[in-house]
Amino acid sequence: MKLKLDLHPIFNRGGEIDRALRDIIDEAIRKRATEVEIIPGKGSGQLKKKVLRFLEQKEIKALYHRIDKDSKNHGRLFVYFRHK
């Protein structure tokens, strides 16, 4: 199962971005999804940096397996999960 989060509608609301990211990670764990696609968009890259900082937090990093950046579209990230 793959989940998708598009951050375009809330790009300028920091608290909502963090909440949306946490919600999608919690949903991926609950539904045992193997992949979450996060779309911060291309723009200036600030939103993508914010997303990466969020994902690098120790307590969040413990929840997923790895992150890949899309080589063909720099406005997209993939977060992969391993469920036991």
From TrEMBL:
Keyword Transcription regulation assigned: no
Keyword Transmembrane carried by entry: no
Superkingdom, taxonomy of origin: Bacteria
GO MF, one example: endonuclease activity
A Pfam family per the record: Smr
InterPro entries: Smr_dom, Smr_dom_sf
Residue ranges annotated for the Smr domain, each copy included: 5-82
Keywords: Endonuclease, Hydrolase, Nuclease
Protein's name according to its UniProt entry: DsDNA-specific endonuclease/ATPase MutS2
Organism from which the protein derives: Streptosporangium saharense
